[in-house]
Protein: Thiolase C-terminal domain-containing protein
Organism: Streptomyces lomondensis
Amino acid sequence: MAVVGVALSDCGRVDGATPYALHAQAARRALADAGLDRSLVDGFASAGLGTLAPVEVAEYLGLRPTWVDSTSVGGSTWEVMAAHAADAIAAGHARVVLLAYGSTARADVRAGRRTGTLSFGARGPLQFEVPYGHTLIAKYAMAARRHMIEYGTTIEQLAEVAVQARANAALNPEAMFRTPVTVDEVQSGPVIADPFTKLHCCVRSDGGAAVLLAAQEYVRDCRTSPVWVLGSGESVSHAAMSEWPDFTVSPAAVSGRLAFGRAGVRPSEIDVAEIYDAFTYMTLVTLEDLGFCGKGEGGAFVSKGRLRVEGGDLPVNTDGGGLSAQHPGMRGLFLLVEAVRQLRGECGERQVRRSGGALPRLAVASGTGGWFCSSGTVVLGAG
């Protein structure tokens, strides 16, 4: 099965649209990208909106799917859904599956809507952490500090992740923030949760995305070159921080091993990586856990400019990522869109090239959910 259509809705600062409208805009654009009629869509996956997602969103889009998925595991939701969709297509349970997402996370806060600042809640395991002010960002900050203590990772090395993400965003006309930054500028910002300053943290934006997967027999009818789903993996780790065995190991260590094994490729063969980056530490530890470098070597790995589109030997988050391009809540679907566009050679100034100017052949998209609670990894290959 192949990805045959991808698209983003309007992103960044979108004050005049609802989340439903962003879903619809991205979905229409993805269908147009593929050149397929909406009537062919018999599978639909969505999460994060409505009481009965994806029923409400499917109704809004005018779809009556016979296969649905509403798996919700945070930012990794979309990589997990893509894996489920690929399995459904392979089993003959669906022929064309649409994954869609839309959020007005930024506009909600700007307008003072109650939904803009809702927490994860305080029921279940979280009831033992919430009373102590253990916020989501505090959990990531704790994990980053543990890595620094265990392996000597420096805050300057983590800042390099933000610097290189911004360098990639400078090549993306649709990124929210494009002005280059230095390590000193990252470090001189206000502290949000020690050791993170503001630029160690993702932006808050509005936006939507959609991805269309189809069975092989429909690929010839599409206007785009197919991007094949070669392998995938998913894993969950913990809900309470007290149940996380090792703050320096994310569930990507499992999902990545599964995805690469099922795809029959090695990390060293990957040309471009799209990695969930709500915070700089996420990029660093995910690179380790996917096998691009050894455990504890992430700091040295990222400090050498390897993540840049221009001059990097492993371009990462080529659109600028959640740190600079856009981050409207659960960003995992945006990783898949960018990976597909890179493999199709559609990224303009930020297009990754292999030696000799050839287009990339292999990409990986790895999403993270919650506070390293879940991971989904998908390996993609050019058609």
User: Anything to note?
Assistant: Residues 157 and 300 are 7 Å apart (CA to CA).
